[in-house]
From TrEMBL:
Endpoints of the signal sequence: 1-20
Family of this protein: Belongs to the peptidase S10 family.
Record GO terms (molecular function): acyltransferase activity, transferring groups other than amino-acyl groups; serine-type carboxypeptidase activity
Species of provenance: Olea europaea subsp. europaea
Sorted UniProt keywords: Carboxypeptidase, Glycoprotein, Hydrolase, Protease, Signal
Pfam families the UniProt entry points to: Peptidase_S10
GO biological process, one term: secondary metabolic process
Protein name: Serine carboxypeptidase-like 18
Length: 460
């Protein structure tokens, strides 16, 4: 045992040049935080030129035995703080009473940290508080991000050896979910090569995932028809003229282009990430933009008139912008001074090459690994509709283990679920009724119940 600890310490000295800090108080909260928050940087890439910032919250239940999640937010370019405060973390902001000053911090009773240790990462360089020491460090891609995220996790575990044996799950939403199977495969390769630490990967979690745009984004047209946003006539015309190919259609197929233009006019003023919420001005607080830029649908929102004081969800994000850009907050979080000019929830100006189009084959490879997988979708999301997710899941040729049925919370239908298996591989699919693109943001209680039940291997 002593030799193992000495080896781990040696690896830590060789590979980890980061610094971590325990944060006991935060501006906006009175008193000591009732959970353990750690922040820090870990260097990755050539000569550690990229410094990735993270937030780590220990499980509020049993940190030594509860699973460890590495959660990556979408974008690419959306800060881990967004998922922490607006979705699954232990605190959020009082957006109702926010007046432009430091927002008050509220505790989240539905935090996933009630049952799990979670690392939220600002990925890639240029996101949140993460930065690079060279201009080359800001050039990002899918393949580079896979290596950087894997290196980050290795170094983090080496600097936190008490968590090496915990069950590990890689998790993410939207574009972040695209990277999940890629990094999971890198973890398996590293384990096979004998790289330290050996990671106890048990599975992964993805929400409203980008898996293959030819499936996910293509299913937007069937989805808007199913949701009564376009007529039967338009959908039938599109099916016939486009032959089922609506994403990147043949530019010489004028009939297809014409009907898609008519469909576009029907839905261009529908909120892409939640079809029932107001279509509002986005300014610099847009949602995950990869789903948006790959489509002809105009995602820039119409400015609201001064008389129209209709609430828009983007207004909620002003609280994180003002909080994270406050110098007192940055000092409390131990942010390195002078490394970023302005914190943004989502940085839309990243240099990022999407050089891996589809990750469907990676999901297929995990069937032999005996993983447990949770795939969830907010059913009112048009950006990454649940129909696309179901379509690629069914392409995995799994056996249905539990037929499509409703799942409940407090006696009400919370969504629908179907479970699949093949040997020791289990995949649970769940919709969250009424939720949008970032499901826990809309339905925190339901998503918390879903996560806890899945984690305990109970049926939803």
């Amino acid at each position: 045992m002593k030799r193992i600890w000495l080896y781990a310490l040696l690896l830590l000295l060789l590979f980890n040049n980061g610094a971590s800090h325990i944060v006991k108080t935060l501006p906006g909260y009175s008193g000591t935080l009732p959970f353990k928050l750690e922040t820090g940087y870990i260097g990755v890439g050539r000569n550690d030129e990229v410094q990735l910032f993270y937030y780590f919250i220990e499980s509020e239940n049993n940190p030594q035995n509860d699973p460890l999640l590495l959660w990556i937010t979408g974008g690419p370019g959306c800060s881990g703080l967004s998922s922490l405060v607006y979705e699954i973390g232990p605190f959020t902001f009082d957006v109702t009473n926010f007046d432009g000053s430091i927002p008050a911090i509220l505790l989240n009773p539905y935090s996933w940290t009630k049952v799990a240790n979670i690392i939220f990462i600002d990925w890639p360089a240029g996101t949140g508080f993460s930065y690079a020491n060279t201009s080359e460090g800001y050039s990002n891609s899918d393949t580079k991000s896979v290596k950087d995220n894997y290196t980050f996790l290795r170094k983090w575990l080496l600097s936190h050896p008490l968590f090496i044996k915990n069950r590990l799950y890689f998790a993410g939403e939207s574009y972040g979910a695209k990277l999940v199977p890629l990094v999971a495969m890198e973890i398996l390769r590293g384990n096979k090569q004998g790289l330290e630490p050996q990671m106890s990967l048990h599975g992964y979690i993805i929400g409203n995932a980008l898996t293959d745009p030819n499936i996910d984004i293509n299913e937007r047209i069937p989805y808007v028809h199913r949701m009564s946003l376009i007529s039967d006539e338009y959908f039938d015309l599109a099916k016939i003229s486009c032959k089922g190919k609506y994403y990147n259609p043949d530019q010489n197929n004028l009939q297809c282009l014409h009907v898609l233009q008519r469909i576009h006019k029907c839905i261009q003023h529908i909120n892409l990430v939640h079809i029932l919420e107001p279509f509002c001005e986005a300014d610099d607080l847009e949602w995950d933009h990869t789903f948006l830029q790959n489509d002809s649908i105009d995602h820039l929102l119409l400015p609201a008139s001064k008389q129209d004081k209709q609430w828009c969800r983007t207004q909620n994000y002003l609280s994180s912008r003002d909080w994270a850009n406050d110098l007192i907050v940055q000092e409390a979080l131990h942010i390195r001074k002078g490394m970023i000019t302005r914190w943004k929830r989502c940085n839309l100006s990243l240099s990022y090459e999407q050089n891996i189009e589809s990750v469907l084959e990676y999901h297929k490879r995990f069937i032999k690994k005996g993983f447990h997988v949770l795939v969830f979708s907010g059913d009112h999301d048009m950006a990454g509709p649940y129909m696309g997710t179901l379509k690629w899941i069914r392409m995995l040729n799994l056996t249905v283990d539990d037929d499509w049925r409703p799942w409940h919370i407090n006696g009400q239908v919370a969504g629908y679920t179907e479970k699949y298996k093949k040997n020791d591989f289990f995949l649970t699919f769940a919709t969250i009724k009424g939720a949008g693109h970032t499901a826990p943001e809309y339905k925190p209680q339901e998503c918390h119940a879903m996560f806890c039940r899945w984690l305990s291997t109970r049926p939803l």
